[in-house]
Fold this protein.
Amino acid sequence: MNLTNSVALVTGGAGGLGAAAVRELVSAGASVVVADLADEAAEKLVAELGPKVRYVRTDVTDEVSVANAVAAAESLGQFRYAVVAHGGSGIAEKVVSRDGAPASLKGFSHIIDLYLTGTFNVLRIAAAAIAKTEPDEGGQRGAVVQTSSIAAFEGQIGQIAYAAAKAGVVGMTLVAARDLGSLGIRVVSVAPGTMLTPMMETVGEEALARFAANIPNPRRLGKPEEYGALVRHILENPYLNGETIRLDGAQRFGVR
């Protein structure tokens, strides 16, 4: 599929992975709506990339907010693509703590709401809008890229909420692809390993070197632009569908 003159929505588009996807899609000729809550970072990205990018303040857990972002994407032209790349707060909590207390249900629910329910909220509203576009000569209308994590497969101690949410994204992928197949809409997820995002850079050189030592090849953290390049390839390759692709340098999380 050709991204030129098409429109994409990127949630978390002002952040590390999302911003990399925005830059890649703009370089491919697409117009992009950045759906995020990070006003300052989003406005800087718009200033950097120019008129093909629009920022819409968006809460992925809110139906009206996501609908407004999708409507903005539709107003720019043929809305065919959505990339769900938002991040947010996280918690490190074992099912039962050292003092014998059970994990917080509120904390667990918050992470599920943000990463799993928020992903589904964007998927369903974006797909309904993409379904209204005219199909191309191959019967394709567009695609949605979701973002999981290798924690979906090898969640570490204290990652119960995050691992469950990201495993849920993996679980939705094939079902969504089957649900949307008759509409010519593909769904693919990316499961990144440890990526060198601006947030990750704040942990310091010593911690970054320790993380990199556990990655077989290349022995370094992933680059956001590598995520962006994969997103672009997924959107342009019409035979990628219903799959979760690991982007991790063969990394496998250990227990901790």
